């Protein structure tokens, strides 16, 4: 079941810092992904929260396989 279809009380939200740690990138990179629309997020006050499943989906879709020669 997709995160959009799950009840909100079952969705795990991550902070920008937590997403950056999972993805091993800077917080600024996460902010750029959120602002560009590549990574969905909700705004809570002045901060963002990203559904954990969205991070996994983004990484899965961004995976680049390397063919052996």
Overall mean confidence score, pLDDT: 89
Number of strands: 3
SSE series: EHHEEH
Total number of helices = 3
> Per the principal axes of the C-alpha atoms, what is the gross shape?
globular
Q: What is the total domain count?
A: 1
Tell me the strand percentage band: 15-25%
Q: Give unreliable regions as ranges.
A: none
In angstroms, what is the radius of gyration? 13 Å
Structural class by sheet pairing and helices: alpha+beta
Largest sheet: 3 strands, antiparallel
Task: Output the strand order for the largest sheet.
Answer: 1-3-2
The first-to-last residue Cα distance is: 38 Å
Write a structural description.
It holds the Pfam family HTH_17. InterPro entries: DNA-bd_dom_put_sf, HTH_17, SinI_DNA-bd. GO terms for molecular function: DNA binding. The chain has 69 residues and is α+β, with helices and mostly antiparallel strands. It has one domain (11-60). The protein has helices at residues 16-23, 27-36, 52-62, and strands at residues 13-15, 42-44, 47-51. Strands 1-3-2 form a 3-stranded antiparallel sheet.
